Amino acid sequence: MESVKKKILEARDLVKTYGTGEGAVHALSSVSLDIYDGEMLAILGSSGSGKSTLLNMLGGMDRPDSGAILTDGHDLTKYRDRELTRYRKKEVGFVFQSFNLIAELTVRENVEMTADKSQGKYVTDQALAIVGLSHKSGSYPTQLSGGEQQRVSIARALAKSPRLLLCDEPTGALDYETGKQILAELDKLVRQQGKTVVIVTHTQEIGKMADRVIRMRNGKITSEEINETRLGIEDIEW
Ligand code: ADP
Ligand code: MG
Given 28, 59, 82, 238, which residue has the most CB atoms within 10 angstroms? Predict the structure, then answer.
């Protein structure tokens, strides 16, 4: 019997248009999707298909022109700025292609800055241990490889202890093998920590490791499928 999965986010009819008239870009045209607790969801699509725009809406970094994003009985799109900031700070973790680490801060400081103050040290230690970087806590970002920097950004996202991690092209700036290691880390978070991970990527093959795959084109979702036979990272090539 299939277990009942809990929805943690429901996006309904999201529309986002940049510009007006002839030059208008329909970044999102009525996009609806659900995100379930404890899943790895891959959102695939070529460059310009609207993936980042969608992820930014789900993470409360941007607002749609219309539509709703429901979470815990609230509609994110109706939040005032202060509530949206709180959501962004507490409820979601972000991992970007460009890592977004602060060069002047050590690894530990980069991670600790997002942790809840009362538990900062403990949470930071935990997050660094999960991504295997405890031994680099005193290093600065420039002293790390690209893969290590991305692991710091994952640790930073984890330090907030969000249930939802939104990753925008997390392997985009990494070489192939390092990219695979980062995907293995993200997979571990789902399988071992029970996190929900959304990975946005233009690399089709990455979809094979996800529980569910959504494809986008021209601001629309064109398909959605459940992976009955999910592959391990070691069995994926691109
Ligand atoms: P993807 O992440 O799939 O590459 P994006 O969501 O970044 O796609 O962009 C979708 C479309 O919206 C593209 O045509 C892009 O040029 C456009 N777009 C995104 N952000 C802006 C913006 N701030 N101003 C104008 N156009 C934008
Ligand atoms: Mg993008």
Answer: 28
For ligand 1, whether the C-beta of 49 sits within 6 Å is yes
For the segment 54-98, what is each residue's pLDDT rounded down to a tens digit?
A: 999 999 999 999 999 999 989 999 999 999 999 998 899 999 999
Q: Provide the residue ranges of all domains of the chain, joining segments of one domain with +.
A: 36-66+80-235
pLDDT tens string 176-219: 998 999 999 999 999 999 999 999 999 999 999 999 999 999 99
Instruction: Report whether 73 contacts 46 (CB < 8 A).
Output: no
141 lines ligand 1 (CB under 6 A): no
Q: pTM to 2 decimals?
A: 0.94
Class of domain 36-66+80-235 as given by CATH = alpha beta
Ligand 1 atom index nearest CA of 219: 10
Q: Is the alpha carbon torsion for 52, 55, 61, 63 positive or negative?
A: positive
Give, using CA atoms, the residue closest to atom 24 of ligand 1: 18
Q: Which atom of ligand 1 is nearest to the CA of 47?
A: 4
